[in-house]
Protein backbone atom coordinates (compact mmCIF):
# COMPACT_ATOMS: atom_id res chain seq x y z
CA UNK A 1 0.00 0.00 0.00
CA UNK A 2 1.37 3.41 -0.92
CA UNK A 3 1.86 6.10 1.72
CA UNK A 4 -0.34 8.54 -0.18
CA UNK A 5 -3.82 8.46 1.28
CA UNK A 6 -5.55 11.65 0.19
CA UNK A 7 -9.10 12.18 1.35
CA UNK A 8 -11.28 13.83 -1.20
CA UNK A 9 -14.07 16.10 -0.07
CA UNK A 10 -16.88 15.70 -2.57
CA UNK A 11 -18.86 18.51 -0.98
CA UNK A 12 -16.03 20.98 -1.66
CA UNK A 13 -16.11 23.51 -4.51
CA UNK A 14 -12.46 22.71 -5.12
CA UNK A 15 -12.16 20.29 -8.04
CA UNK A 16 -10.90 16.80 -7.20
CA UNK A 17 -7.71 17.21 -9.22
CA UNK A 18 -6.89 20.38 -7.30
CA UNK A 19 -7.48 18.70 -3.93
CA UNK A 20 -5.12 15.92 -4.98
CA UNK A 21 -2.51 18.31 -6.29
CA UNK A 22 -2.57 20.38 -3.07
CA UNK A 23 -2.41 17.22 -0.94
CA UNK A 24 0.66 15.88 -2.73
CA UNK A 25 2.35 19.28 -3.04
CA UNK A 26 1.93 19.91 0.69
CA UNK A 27 3.43 16.54 1.53
CA UNK A 28 6.41 17.21 -0.72
CA UNK A 29 6.83 20.65 0.87
CA UNK A 30 6.67 19.15 4.37
CA UNK A 31 9.26 16.51 3.48
CA UNK A 32 6.82 13.64 4.03
CA UNK A 33 7.34 12.62 0.44
CA UNK A 34 11.07 12.44 -0.10
CA UNK A 35 13.04 13.43 -3.21
CA UNK A 36 13.33 10.49 -5.55
CA UNK A 37 10.32 8.71 -4.08
CA UNK A 38 8.13 7.17 -6.74
CA UNK A 39 4.53 8.32 -6.89
CA UNK A 40 1.90 5.68 -7.50
CA UNK A 41 0.88 5.26 -11.11
CA UNK A 42 -2.17 7.17 -12.29
CA UNK A 43 -4.04 3.89 -12.54
CA UNK A 44 -3.12 2.74 -9.04
CA UNK A 45 -3.94 6.02 -7.32
CA UNK A 46 -7.19 6.31 -9.25
CA UNK A 47 -8.23 2.86 -8.15
CA UNK A 48 -7.15 3.47 -4.53
CA UNK A 49 -9.36 6.54 -4.54
CA UNK A 50 -12.18 4.89 -6.44
CA UNK A 51 -12.05 7.69 -9.06
CA UNK A 52 -11.45 7.98 -12.75
CA UNK A 53 -7.91 8.51 -13.95
CA UNK A 54 -8.57 12.01 -15.24
CA UNK A 55 -8.26 13.98 -11.98
CA UNK A 56 -5.17 12.02 -10.97
CA UNK A 57 -3.54 12.65 -14.36
CA UNK A 58 -4.42 16.36 -14.14
CA UNK A 59 -2.98 16.64 -10.63
CA UNK A 60 0.22 14.92 -11.78
CA UNK A 61 0.50 17.21 -14.82
CA UNK A 62 0.29 20.23 -12.56
CA UNK A 63 2.93 18.85 -10.18
CA UNK A 64 5.26 18.25 -13.12
CA UNK A 65 4.59 21.70 -14.59
CA UNK A 66 5.54 23.35 -11.32
CA UNK A 67 8.56 21.11 -10.80
CA UNK A 68 7.34 19.21 -7.74
CA UNK A 69 7.62 15.94 -9.63
CA UNK A 70 9.61 14.71 -12.57
CA UNK A 71 8.50 12.20 -15.09
CA UNK A 72 11.00 9.57 -16.20
CA UNK A 73 10.01 7.86 -19.43
CA UNK A 74 8.85 4.28 -18.89
CA UNK A 75 9.60 4.47 -15.14
CA UNK A 76 6.91 6.76 -13.79
CA UNK A 77 6.68 9.92 -11.75
CA UNK A 78 9.16 10.77 -8.98
CA UNK A 79 9.23 13.42 -6.28
CA UNK A 80 11.63 16.21 -7.30
CA UNK A 81 14.32 17.51 -4.99
CA UNK A 82 12.87 20.92 -4.33
CA UNK A 83 15.62 22.01 -1.99
CA UNK A 84 18.37 20.73 -4.25
CA UNK A 85 21.59 22.73 -4.27
CA UNK A 86 20.50 25.42 -1.86
CA UNK A 87 23.49 27.68 -1.46
CA UNK A 88 25.33 27.71 1.80
CA UNK A 89 25.05 31.18 3.26
CA UNK A 90 28.38 32.83 2.53
CA UNK A 91 29.25 30.35 -0.22
CA UNK A 92 31.94 32.01 -2.29
CA UNK A 93 30.68 33.45 -5.53
CA UNK A 94 31.57 31.73 -8.75
CA UNK A 95 31.68 28.16 -7.46
CA UNK A 96 29.24 27.00 -10.14
CA UNK A 97 30.34 25.39 -13.38
CA UNK A 98 29.62 28.30 -15.68
CA UNK A 99 32.40 30.41 -17.12
CA UNK A 100 33.71 33.26 -14.99
CA UNK A 101 31.56 36.34 -15.19
CA UNK A 102 34.25 38.37 -16.87
CA UNK A 103 33.95 36.15 -19.95
CA UNK A 104 30.21 36.59 -20.10
CA UNK A 105 28.38 39.54 -21.59
CA UNK A 106 28.02 42.62 -19.48
CA UNK A 107 26.28 45.74 -20.50
CA UNK A 108 27.11 49.35 -20.28
CA UNK A 109 24.09 51.57 -19.66
CA UNK A 110 24.40 53.58 -22.84
CA UNK A 111 23.31 51.14 -25.53
CA UNK A 112 20.97 52.24 -28.27
CA UNK A 113 17.38 51.42 -27.38
CA UNK A 114 15.48 49.18 -29.76
CA UNK A 115 12.12 50.32 -31.08
CA UNK A 116 9.06 48.69 -29.50
CA UNK A 117 8.64 45.88 -31.98
CA UNK A 118 5.90 43.57 -30.90
CA UNK A 119 2.83 45.72 -31.07
CA UNK A 120 0.47 44.50 -33.73
CA UNK A 121 1.13 46.68 -36.74
CA UNK A 122 -1.09 48.65 -39.04
CA UNK A 123 -3.54 46.12 -40.50
CA UNK A 124 -3.10 47.68 -43.96
CA UNK A 125 0.41 46.24 -44.14
CA UNK A 126 -0.68 42.64 -43.89
CA UNK A 127 -3.41 40.08 -44.28
CA UNK A 128 -2.34 38.19 -41.15
CA UNK A 129 -0.75 39.98 -38.22
CA UNK A 130 0.68 37.77 -35.48
CA UNK A 131 1.58 40.83 -33.41
CA UNK A 132 1.90 40.32 -29.70
CA UNK A 133 0.47 43.30 -27.81
CA UNK A 134 -3.14 42.91 -28.95
CA UNK A 135 -5.86 41.08 -27.02
CA UNK A 136 -9.11 39.41 -28.06
CA UNK A 137 -12.08 41.72 -27.60
CA UNK A 138 -14.77 39.38 -28.95
CA UNK A 139 -16.07 38.63 -25.44
CA UNK A 140 -15.39 42.02 -23.94
CA UNK A 141 -18.37 43.45 -22.03
CA UNK A 142 -18.38 46.79 -23.82
CA UNK A 143 -21.76 47.88 -22.45
CA UNK A 144 -20.80 47.20 -18.87
CA UNK A 145 -17.59 49.20 -19.20
CA UNK A 146 -19.40 52.07 -20.91
CA UNK A 147 -21.70 52.21 -17.89
CA UNK A 148 -18.90 51.92 -15.30
CA UNK A 149 -16.81 54.63 -16.94
CA UNK A 150 -19.85 56.78 -17.70
CA UNK A 151 -20.97 56.66 -14.05
CA UNK A 152 -17.74 58.41 -13.05
CA UNK A 153 -19.14 61.51 -14.74
CA UNK A 154 -22.31 61.61 -12.66
CA UNK A 155 -22.29 64.73 -10.48
CA UNK A 156 -22.34 62.63 -7.29
CA UNK A 157 -19.12 60.90 -8.35
CA UNK A 158 -17.21 64.13 -8.81
CA UNK A 159 -14.31 62.93 -6.66
CA UNK A 160 -13.31 60.55 -9.43
CA UNK A 161 -12.46 63.56 -11.57
CA UNK A 162 -9.87 64.82 -9.11
CA UNK A 163 -6.35 63.65 -8.29
CA UNK A 164 -6.28 60.17 -6.79
CA UNK A 165 -4.45 58.53 -3.89
CA UNK A 166 -0.77 58.25 -4.74
CA UNK A 167 -0.80 54.50 -4.11
CA UNK A 168 -4.03 54.06 -6.05
CA UNK A 169 -7.75 53.80 -5.27
CA UNK A 170 -8.02 52.12 -1.84
CA UNK A 171 -11.02 50.00 -2.89
CA UNK A 172 -9.25 48.84 -6.05
CA UNK A 173 -6.21 47.86 -3.98
CA UNK A 174 -8.47 45.75 -1.77
CA UNK A 175 -9.87 44.01 -4.83
CA UNK A 176 -6.41 43.43 -6.27
CA UNK A 177 -5.11 42.00 -2.97
CA UNK A 178 -8.08 39.60 -2.71
CA UNK A 179 -7.74 38.56 -6.34
CA UNK A 180 -3.99 38.03 -6.12
CA UNK A 181 -4.33 35.83 -3.05
CA UNK A 182 -7.04 33.73 -4.54
CA UNK A 183 -5.80 33.49 -8.13
CA UNK A 184 -2.04 33.89 -7.92
CA UNK A 185 -1.19 32.88 -4.34
CA UNK A 186 0.25 36.35 -3.62
CA UNK A 187 0.09 37.27 0.07
CA UNK A 188 -0.18 40.97 0.71
CA UNK A 189 -2.32 43.63 2.28
CA UNK A 190 -3.88 46.41 0.17
CA UNK A 191 -1.42 48.79 1.85
CA UNK A 192 1.47 47.04 0.07
CA UNK A 193 0.00 47.68 -3.36
CA UNK A 194 1.01 50.62 -5.53
CA UNK A 195 -1.16 51.06 -8.60
CA UNK A 196 0.68 52.25 -11.69
CA UNK A 197 0.01 53.24 -15.28
CA UNK A 198 1.38 50.12 -16.96
CA UNK A 199 4.26 47.77 -16.30
CA UNK A 200 6.92 50.20 -17.41
CA UNK A 201 5.65 52.96 -15.18
CA UNK A 202 5.53 50.57 -12.23
CA UNK A 203 8.99 49.25 -13.00
CA UNK A 204 10.31 52.77 -13.39
CA UNK A 205 8.94 53.69 -9.96
CA UNK A 206 10.45 50.55 -8.52
CA UNK A 207 13.88 51.14 -10.00
CA UNK A 208 13.85 54.68 -8.59
CA UNK A 209 13.08 53.16 -5.23
CA UNK A 210 15.75 50.47 -5.45
CA UNK A 211 18.38 52.68 -7.05
CA UNK A 212 20.19 53.66 -3.82
CA UNK A 213 20.64 49.96 -2.95
CA UNK A 214 21.83 48.81 -6.36
CA UNK A 215 25.44 48.28 -7.37
CA UNK A 216 24.35 46.01 -10.19
CA UNK A 217 21.16 44.32 -11.28
CA UNK A 218 20.73 40.86 -12.76
CA UNK A 219 18.03 39.86 -15.24
CA UNK A 220 16.99 36.91 -17.35
CA UNK A 221 19.09 36.90 -20.52
CA UNK A 222 16.07 37.94 -22.58
CA UNK A 223 13.43 40.39 -21.40
CA UNK A 224 10.62 42.39 -22.88
CA UNK A 225 12.07 45.39 -24.74
CA UNK A 226 10.39 47.99 -22.52
CA UNK A 227 11.85 46.26 -19.49
CA UNK A 228 15.22 46.17 -21.23
CA UNK A 229 15.13 49.92 -21.83
CA UNK A 230 14.37 50.59 -18.18
CA UNK A 231 17.05 48.24 -16.91
CA UNK A 232 19.61 49.84 -19.19
CA UNK A 233 18.59 53.28 -17.99
CA UNK A 234 18.81 52.33 -14.33
CA UNK A 235 22.35 53.62 -14.15
CA UNK A 236 23.92 50.40 -12.88
CA UNK A 237 25.51 47.49 -14.76
CA UNK A 238 23.00 44.88 -15.90
CA UNK A 239 24.11 41.23 -15.67
CA UNK A 240 22.28 38.90 -18.05
CA UNK A 241 21.69 35.47 -16.50
CA UNK A 242 21.26 32.64 -18.97
CA UNK A 243 18.15 30.52 -18.96
CA UNK A 244 17.80 26.76 -18.57
CA UNK A 245 14.57 24.86 -19.33
CA UNK A 246 13.56 25.25 -15.67
CA UNK A 247 14.39 28.93 -15.24
CA UNK A 248 17.46 31.08 -14.75
CA UNK A 249 20.83 29.53 -14.01
CA UNK A 250 21.18 30.10 -10.33
CA UNK A 251 24.92 29.45 -10.33
CA UNK A 252 25.36 32.42 -12.68
CA UNK A 253 23.24 34.57 -10.43
CA UNK A 254 25.29 33.54 -7.42
CA UNK A 255 28.43 34.58 -9.26
CA UNK A 256 27.20 38.17 -9.51
CA UNK A 257 27.13 40.74 -6.78
CA UNK A 258 23.64 41.89 -7.82
CA UNK A 259 21.30 43.28 -5.21
CA UNK A 260 18.24 42.55 -7.36
CA UNK A 261 17.21 40.19 -10.13
CA UNK A 262 14.39 40.59 -12.64
CA UNK A 263 12.52 37.37 -13.51
CA UNK A 264 9.30 36.15 -15.16
CA UNK A 265 8.95 32.83 -13.28
CA UNK A 266 5.39 31.84 -14.21
CA UNK A 267 5.96 32.30 -17.92
CA UNK A 268 9.31 33.53 -19.10
CA UNK A 269 9.11 36.29 -21.65
CA UNK A 270 9.78 35.55 -24.47
CA UNK A 271 10.89 31.88 -24.18
CA UNK A 272 7.92 30.67 -22.19
CA UNK A 273 9.48 28.34 -19.62
CA UNK A 274 8.21 28.04 -16.05
CA UNK A 275 10.65 28.31 -13.17
CA UNK A 276 10.56 24.99 -11.32
CA UNK A 277 9.78 24.85 -7.62
CA UNK A 278 13.38 23.78 -6.91
CA UNK A 279 14.72 26.86 -8.70
CA UNK A 280 12.17 29.05 -6.94
CA UNK A 281 13.43 27.85 -3.58
CA UNK A 282 17.02 28.47 -4.68
CA UNK A 283 16.16 31.96 -5.88
CA UNK A 284 14.49 32.78 -2.58
CA UNK A 285 17.44 31.37 -0.66
CA UNK A 286 19.82 33.47 -2.76
CA UNK A 287 17.79 36.64 -2.13
CA UNK A 288 17.61 35.98 1.58
CA UNK A 289 21.31 35.24 1.90
CA UNK A 290 22.32 38.28 -0.15
CA UNK A 291 19.68 40.63 1.23
CA UNK A 292 18.69 41.08 -2.39
CA UNK A 293 15.35 41.58 -4.10
CA UNK A 294 13.62 39.46 -6.71
CA UNK A 295 11.46 41.44 -9.13
CA UNK A 296 8.76 39.01 -10.26
CA UNK A 297 6.93 40.18 -13.39
CA UNK A 298 3.72 38.16 -13.65
CA UNK A 299 2.40 39.76 -16.82
CA UNK A 300 0.19 36.94 -18.11
CA UNK A 301 0.13 34.33 -15.34
CA UNK A 302 -3.66 34.02 -15.60
CA UNK A 303 -3.46 32.36 -18.96
CA UNK A 304 -2.31 28.81 -18.63
CA UNK A 305 -4.11 26.13 -20.59
CA UNK A 306 -4.53 22.51 -19.61
CA UNK A 307 -3.66 23.03 -15.94
CA UNK A 308 -4.08 25.60 -13.28
CA UNK A 309 -2.03 28.80 -13.36
CA UNK A 310 1.41 28.50 -11.78
CA UNK A 311 1.28 30.14 -8.32
CA UNK A 312 3.42 33.21 -7.84
CA UNK A 313 6.93 33.18 -6.45
CA UNK A 314 5.87 35.92 -4.04
CA UNK A 315 3.55 33.48 -2.27
CA UNK A 316 6.51 31.26 -1.35
CA UNK A 317 8.56 34.10 0.08
CA UNK A 318 8.64 34.34 3.84
CA UNK A 319 11.53 36.80 4.03
CA UNK A 320 10.02 39.80 2.22
CA UNK A 321 12.44 39.58 -0.70
CA UNK A 322 10.00 39.38 -3.63
CA UNK A 323 8.55 42.44 -5.33
CA UNK A 324 5.58 41.36 -7.40
CA UNK A 325 4.61 43.23 -10.55
CA UNK A 326 1.39 42.70 -12.47
CA UNK A 327 -0.64 44.33 -15.24
CA UNK A 328 -4.20 44.33 -16.55
CA UNK A 329 -2.98 44.72 -20.13
CA UNK A 330 -3.35 41.03 -20.98
CA UNK A 331 -6.13 40.08 -18.58
CA UNK A 332 -8.32 42.99 -19.76
CA UNK A 333 -6.99 45.37 -22.41
CA UNK A 334 -3.76 47.35 -22.79
CA UNK A 335 -5.16 50.86 -23.20
CA UNK A 336 -6.46 50.61 -19.63
CA UNK A 337 -2.85 51.36 -18.59
CA UNK A 338 -3.26 49.81 -15.16
CA UNK A 339 -0.57 47.84 -13.37
CA UNK A 340 0.50 47.26 -9.79
CA UNK A 341 3.49 46.65 -7.61
CA UNK A 342 3.27 44.62 -4.44
CA UNK A 343 6.02 45.92 -2.19
CA UNK A 344 7.56 44.03 0.72
CA UNK A 345 7.04 45.93 3.97
CA UNK A 346 10.63 47.15 4.14
CA UNK A 347 10.33 48.79 0.72
CA UNK A 348 6.88 50.13 1.46
CA UNK A 349 8.38 52.31 4.19
CA UNK A 350 10.98 53.59 1.70
CA UNK A 351 8.30 54.18 -0.91
CA UNK A 352 6.34 56.34 1.48
CA UNK A 353 9.43 58.27 2.45
CA UNK A 354 10.48 58.85 -1.15
CA UNK A 355 10.18 62.22 -2.86
CA UNK A 356 7.66 61.70 -5.60
CA UNK A 357 8.04 63.89 -8.61
CA UNK A 358 4.62 63.30 -10.13
CA UNK A 359 1.16 62.43 -8.93
CA UNK A 360 -0.75 59.17 -9.41
CA UNK A 361 -0.46 58.42 -13.14
CA UNK A 362 -3.19 55.81 -13.46
CA UNK A 363 -6.51 57.49 -14.16
CA UNK A 364 -8.87 57.45 -11.15
CA UNK A 365 -11.71 56.98 -13.67
CA UNK A 366 -10.42 53.65 -14.87
CA UNK A 367 -9.39 52.66 -11.36
CA UNK A 368 -12.93 53.27 -10.18
CA UNK A 369 -14.44 51.34 -13.09
CA UNK A 370 -12.08 48.43 -12.53
CA UNK A 371 -12.78 48.37 -8.79
CA UNK A 372 -16.48 47.88 -9.51
CA UNK A 373 -15.81 45.36 -12.27
CA UNK A 374 -13.72 43.29 -9.87
CA UNK A 375 -16.02 43.69 -6.87
CA UNK A 376 -18.98 42.33 -8.80
CA UNK A 377 -17.00 39.21 -9.74
CA UNK A 378 -17.00 40.21 -13.41
CA UNK A 379 -13.24 40.24 -13.68
CA UNK A 380 -12.77 36.65 -12.59
CA UNK A 381 -15.63 35.52 -14.81
CA UNK A 382 -14.03 37.33 -17.72
CA UNK A 383 -10.66 35.72 -17.06
CA UNK A 384 -12.25 32.28 -16.98
CA UNK A 385 -13.93 32.92 -20.31
CA UNK A 386 -10.80 34.35 -21.90
CA UNK A 387 -8.72 31.42 -20.72
CA UNK A 388 -10.95 29.22 -22.87
CA UNK A 389 -10.82 31.63 -25.82
CA UNK A 390 -7.03 31.93 -25.77
CA UNK A 391 -6.59 28.21 -25.11
CA UNK A 392 -8.59 27.46 -28.26
CA UNK A 393 -6.56 29.94 -30.23
CA UNK A 394 -3.34 28.38 -29.08
CA UNK A 395 -4.68 24.95 -30.02
CA UNK A 396 -5.61 26.24 -33.45
CA UNK A 397 -2.14 27.65 -33.87
CA UNK A 398 -0.36 24.50 -32.70
CA UNK A 399 -2.48 22.32 -34.95
CA UNK A 400 -1.82 24.54 -37.96
CA UNK A 401 1.92 24.72 -37.23
CA UNK A 402 2.07 20.93 -36.92
CA UNK A 403 0.13 20.37 -40.12
CA UNK A 404 1.66 23.12 -42.25
CA UNK A 405 5.22 23.35 -40.98
CA UNK A 406 5.69 19.91 -39.47
CA UNK A 407 9.27 19.14 -38.57
CA UNK A 408 10.58 22.34 -40.13
CA UNK A 409 9.72 24.51 -37.16
CA UNK A 410 10.24 23.89 -33.47
CA UNK A 411 7.56 25.39 -31.25
CA UNK A 412 8.95 27.05 -28.13
CA UNK A 413 6.93 28.08 -25.10
CA UNK A 414 3.54 26.53 -25.67
CA UNK A 415 0.97 25.94 -22.93
CA UNK A 416 0.39 29.44 -21.67
CA UNK A 417 0.31 33.13 -22.45
CA UNK A 418 -0.64 34.86 -25.67
CA UNK A 419 2.35 34.07 -27.82
CA UNK A 420 4.74 31.36 -28.84
CA UNK A 421 8.03 31.18 -30.67
CA UNK A 422 8.93 29.27 -33.82
CA UNK A 423 12.50 28.22 -34.46
CA UNK A 424 13.33 27.40 -38.04
CA UNK A 425 15.04 24.04 -38.37
CA UNK A 426 16.25 24.88 -41.90
CA UNK A 427 18.79 27.29 -40.42
CA UNK A 428 17.44 30.57 -41.80
CA UNK A 429 18.06 33.78 -39.94
CA UNK A 430 15.41 35.73 -38.12
CA UNK A 431 15.62 38.52 -40.72
CA UNK A 432 15.03 36.04 -43.56
CA UNK A 433 12.05 34.52 -41.77
CA UNK A 434 10.45 37.88 -40.99
CA UNK A 435 11.10 39.18 -44.53
CA UNK A 436 9.81 36.06 -46.29
CA UNK A 437 6.63 36.18 -44.19
CA UNK A 438 6.18 39.87 -44.85
CA UNK A 439 6.48 39.42 -48.60
CA UNK A 440 3.46 37.11 -48.30
CA UNK A 441 1.65 39.74 -46.19
CA UNK A 442 2.06 37.81 -42.93
CA UNK A 443 3.61 39.61 -39.98
CA UNK A 444 5.76 37.63 -37.56
CA UNK A 445 8.15 39.31 -35.18
CA UNK A 446 11.83 39.19 -34.26
CA UNK A 447 13.01 37.80 -30.94
CA UNK A 448 16.65 38.96 -30.99
CA UNK A 449 15.58 42.40 -29.75
CA UNK A 450 14.79 40.85 -26.38
CA UNK A 451 18.28 39.49 -25.79
CA UNK A 452 20.21 41.54 -23.27
CA UNK A 453 23.34 41.11 -25.35
CA UNK A 454 23.50 40.27 -29.09
CA UNK A 455 25.41 37.02 -28.53
CA UNK A 456 22.56 35.77 -26.35
CA UNK A 457 19.95 35.98 -29.13
CA UNK A 458 18.42 32.66 -30.20
CA UNK A 459 19.18 32.09 -33.89
CA UNK A 460 16.38 31.81 -36.45
CA UNK A 461 13.54 32.30 -33.98
CA UNK A 462 10.45 34.45 -34.45
CA UNK A 463 7.57 35.40 -32.19
CA UNK A 464 3.91 34.90 -33.07
CA UNK A 465 1.22 36.43 -30.90
CA UNK A 466 -2.33 35.16 -31.15
CA UNK A 467 -4.08 37.48 -28.70
CA UNK A 468 -5.56 39.78 -31.32
CA UNK A 469 -5.97 37.64 -34.43
CA UNK A 470 -9.44 36.10 -34.82
CA UNK A 471 -9.37 32.33 -34.34
CA UNK A 472 -10.67 31.60 -37.84
CA UNK A 473 -7.70 33.47 -39.31
CA UNK A 474 -5.05 31.56 -37.36
CA UNK A 475 -5.04 28.44 -39.58
CA UNK A 476 -5.05 30.32 -42.91
CA UNK A 477 -2.36 32.66 -41.58
CA UNK A 478 -0.06 29.78 -40.68
CA UNK A 479 -0.79 28.13 -44.01
CA UNK A 480 0.29 31.32 -45.82
CA UNK A 481 3.37 31.47 -43.60
CA UNK A 482 4.31 27.90 -44.47
CA UNK A 483 4.03 28.76 -48.18
CA UNK A 484 6.14 31.87 -47.69
CA UNK A 485 8.81 29.90 -45.88
CA UNK A 486 8.69 27.20 -48.57
CA UNK A 487 6.87 23.96 -47.90
C1 LIG B 1 6.98 40.76 -20.08
C2 LIG B 1 5.89 41.78 -20.24
N1 LIG B 1 5.50 42.50 -19.19
C3 LIG B 1 4.52 43.41 -19.31
C4 LIG B 1 3.88 43.66 -20.50
C5 LIG B 1 2.74 44.63 -20.54
O1 LIG B 1 3.14 45.89 -20.21
P1 LIG B 1 2.06 47.04 -19.89
O2 LIG B 1 1.51 46.79 -18.53
O3 LIG B 1 2.91 48.28 -19.92
O4 LIG B 1 1.04 47.02 -20.95
C6 LIG B 1 4.32 42.99 -21.60
C7 LIG B 1 3.84 43.31 -22.94
O5 LIG B 1 3.05 43.26 -23.59
C8 LIG B 1 5.31 42.00 -21.47
O6 LIG B 1 5.73 41.28 -22.50
UniProtKB/TrEMBL annotation:
InterPro entries assigned: Aminotransferase_I/II_large, HTH_trans_reg/aminotransferase, PyrdxlP-dep_Trfase, PyrdxlP-dep_Trfase_major, Tscrpt_reg_HTH_GntR, WH-like_DNA-bd_sf, WH_DNA-bd_sf
Cofactor entry: pyridoxal 5'-phosphate
Keywords tagged on the record: Aminotransferase, DNA-binding, Pyridoxal phosphate, Transcription, Transcription regulation, Transferase
PANTHER family attached to this UniProt entry: HTH-TYPE TRANSCRIPTIONAL REGULATORY PROTEIN GABR
Organism field: Paenibacillus aurantiacus
Recorded GO MF terms: transaminase activity
Name assigned to this protein: PLP-dependent aminotransferase family protein
Residue ranges of domain HTH gntR-type in the record: 14-82
Pfam families found in the cross-reference section: Aminotran_1_2 (PF00155), GntR (PF00392)
Chain spans, region Disordered: 89-109
Amino acid sequence: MHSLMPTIDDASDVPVYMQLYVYIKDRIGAGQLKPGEKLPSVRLLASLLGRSRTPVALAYDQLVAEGYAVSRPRSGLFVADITAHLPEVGQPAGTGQTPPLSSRPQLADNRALPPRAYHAADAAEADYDFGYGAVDLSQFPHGRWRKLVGDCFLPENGRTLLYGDYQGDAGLREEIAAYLLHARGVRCSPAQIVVGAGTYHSLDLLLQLLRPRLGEIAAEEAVNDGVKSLLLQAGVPVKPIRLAPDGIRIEELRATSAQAVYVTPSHQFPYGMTTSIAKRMQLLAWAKAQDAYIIENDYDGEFRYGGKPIPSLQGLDSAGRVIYLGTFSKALFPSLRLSYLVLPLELLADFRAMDHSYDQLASPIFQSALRQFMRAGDFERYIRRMRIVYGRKQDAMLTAVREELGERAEVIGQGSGLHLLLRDRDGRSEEQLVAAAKSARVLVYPTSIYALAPELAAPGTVLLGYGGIPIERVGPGICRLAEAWGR
